[in-house]
């Protein structure tokens, strides 16, 4: 796996790092494929009770899906990418292990959506959160229009999705996006894991299944995929993503 680093730090706890620090760990198709294959493998590890997900380097957890890769996609390709991302994040959400997101640095777009598919989120003082998709002429496509409102409420979710600004970790904690802020999120995630692994393992699995049961039923992820794909093949998406690669602000026309 080129873009992932996995270390089993004890019999019951593993740490997965998204490893593309040069591109702020943004998720390209290859990385998503690797995460997908990785999840299928660790599913078989019955000794693993807790998976911690974090980003390599100190700058980013994940700064979103890879914009350069998405830039020239048409709506069918975008739909496939969005469906695939949703499939992978659903696997994380329903993995029969507790998943803790240790959020270091930027946690944006698809990165927020990855964090939202974790069970518990720990941040640091330098974490920054946001759904900046509208600045690119698109909408979130890996579940945020559904999961974000469940976690922080519809009003705040709309604010983050419609305005696209970043928030700091203090605000993320206040609105319930983060469970905790600490100096070292991975270290704290390990502390939490060490508590969880002392509890009844079957009880933890059953609790996760029960919490997720009705929650899963209310996620309209397929509808999000459709709305997401509608944004591609538009001038707004072309301008938004072209502007990002040219390191300038997008200029959208009146429509
Ligand atoms: N995609 C591709 N490359 C990226 C991304 C990204 N999301 N984020 C950063 N990079 C690259 C930069 O282009 C740069 O590369 P290069 O050196 O080749 O120019 C490198 O990483 C370092 O980044 P910066 O120089 O920009 O670092 P700064 O410290 O100046 O800025 C920011 C950091 C503010 C985080 C800035 O990089 C940024 O705004 N990144 C984009 C954030 C963003 O918009 N994320 C949302 C993406 S859209 C999305 O996630 C949709 C999810 C659903 C997808 C569904 C699939 C179809």
TrEMBL record:
Keyword entries, A-Z: Lyase
Any one Gene Ontology molecular-function term assigned to this protein's record: 3-hydroxyacyl-CoA dehydratase activity
Catalytic activity, reaction form: a short-chain (3S)-3-hydroxyacyl-CoA = a short-chain (2E)-enoyl-CoA + H2O
Pathway info: Lipid metabolism; butanoate metabolism
InterPro entries given in the database record: ClpP/crotonase-like_dom_sf (IPR029045), Enoyl-CoA_hyd/isom_CS (IPR018376), Enoyl-CoA_hydra/iso (IPR001753), Enoyl-CoA_hydra_C (IPR014748)
Transmembrane segments: none
Xref: CDD domains: crotonase-like
PROSITE patterns noted in UniProt: ENOYL_COA_HYDRATASE
Similarity comment: Belongs to the enoyl-CoA hydratase/isomerase family.
Name this polypeptide is given: short-chain-enoyl-CoA hydratase
Taxonomic lineage: Bacteria, Bacillati, Bacillota, Clostridia, Peptostreptococcales
């Amino acid at each position: 796996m080129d873009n992932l680093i996995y270390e089993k730090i004890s019999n019951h706890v593993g740490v997965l790092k998204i490893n593309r620090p040069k591109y702020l760990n943004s998720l390209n198709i290859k990385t998503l494929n690797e995460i997908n294959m990785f999840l299928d493998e660790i599913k078989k590890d019955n000794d693993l009770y807790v998976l911690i997900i974090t980003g390599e380097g100190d700058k980013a957890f994940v700064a979103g899906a890879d914009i350069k890769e998405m830039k020239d996609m048409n709506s069918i390709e975008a739909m496939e990418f969005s469906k695939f991302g949703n499939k992978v994040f659903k696997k994380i959400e329903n993995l029969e292990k507790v998943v803790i997101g240790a959020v270091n640095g930027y946690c944006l777009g698809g990165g927020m959506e990855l964090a939202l598919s974790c069970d518990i989120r720990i941040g640091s003082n330098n974490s920054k959160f946001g759904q900046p998709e509208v600045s690119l002429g698109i909408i979130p496509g890996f579940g945020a229009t559904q999961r974000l409102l469940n976690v922080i409420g519809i009003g705040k979710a709309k604010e983050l999705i419609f305005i696209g600004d970043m928030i700091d970790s203090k605000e993320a904690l206040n609105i319930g996006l983060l469970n905790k802020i600490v100096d070292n999120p991975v270290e704290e995630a390990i502390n939490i894991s060490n508590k969880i692994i002392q509890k009844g393992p079957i009880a933890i699995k059953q609790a996760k299944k029960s919490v997720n049961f009705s929650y899963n039923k209310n996620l309209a992820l397929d509808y999000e995929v459709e709305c997401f794909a509608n944004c591609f093949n538009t001038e707004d998406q072309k301008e938004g993503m072209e502007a990002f690669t040219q390191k300038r602000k997008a200029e959208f026309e009146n429509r």
